[in-house]
Amino acid sequence: MRVETVVESEVVELFAGTGTCPVCSARSKAVDGWIYGAFYNLLHNEDARFRLKSGGLCREHSRRIVEIAREKSDIGSLPVSVVFKELLIGQLDLIGQGERKLFKKAPSSRSTGSCHLCEVSRESGKRYVIAIAKFFDSEKIRKLYEESSSILCIDHAREIVVSMRTATAEWFVALQKSKVESVVKMLERYIGKHDYRNTSPIGDDRNAWLTASRIIGEARVTGHNE
Ligand SMILES: [Zn+2]
Ligand SMILES: [Zn+2]
């Protein structure tokens, strides 16, 4: 595993985001950086080609590669075509008789989901979760997060709590809940403004659904509807 130190200034920069989760942002940045670095000089980067080829690509990351290639004219579609071709040729062999047996025997043991970019994303996430949990021991960083409009998503907030000292966790849980509740209130305000009796104009709350989309986690919600 690559050991990389997350420095305070990086965290400070991530906290400057509006309505975004600092860990999710760090993960996206890591993935974009990897894609750019790999495809910028792809013909001389055997290692990157090997990693992409051996793990396959999830839909999200093949889409991201295409987006970056379109945005950055110094990448363009040529290196992406080269990698996609290699990937498809390699994966052609997966459609066949051997695979048929494999499916029948043990469908759950198939080696899917090893997209290298997912791994880059996960590794970066872990680093930032540990770093942020530690940085929250500092008054200065706490204050910064309190005043920032960035919000850790539900999943990363839960991971951070686990990595924290107990005293810090108390502060964090209270703050995190109030941040999420403020998004809920904005959603309520926005929804309420669609009532025919409403006369107040829609303001900042028009973006509440977008903020919500970025901070909702994958945790299963138990309990019943109101
Ligand atoms: Zn997150
Ligand atoms: Zn992926």
Question: In words, what does this structure look like?
Answer:
- The protein has 226 residues and is an all-alpha fold.
- 65% of the residues lie in helices and 0% in strands.
- The protein has one domain (8-215).
- It has helices spanning 8-14, 22-40, 46-55, 59-71, 77-92, 97-105, 116-135, 139-147, 154-162, 166-192, 208-215.
- Mean pLDDT is 88; it is low at 106-110.
- It binds zinc ion (2 copies).
- One zinc ion (ZN) is lined by residues 21, 23-24, 152-153, 155-156.
List the helices and strands and how they pair.
Elements: H1 8-14, H2 22-40, H3 46-55, H4 59-71, H5 77-92, H6 97-105, H7 116-135, H8 139-147, H9 154-162, H10 166-192, H11 208-215
Helix pairs in contact: 2-4, 2-7, 3-5, 7-9, 10-11
The structure holds zinc ion (ZN) (2 copies).
One zinc ion is lined by residues 58, 60-61, 115, 117-118.
**Sheet/helix structural class:** mainly alpha
User: What radius of gyration results from the CA coordinates?
Assistant: 22 Å
Query: How many beta strands in the DSSP annotation?
Result: 0
> What is the N-to-C succession of helices and strands?
HHHHHHHHHHH
Flag low-confidence runs.
106-110
Strand content: under 5%
Number of helices: 11
Q: Give helix % range.
A: 55-70%
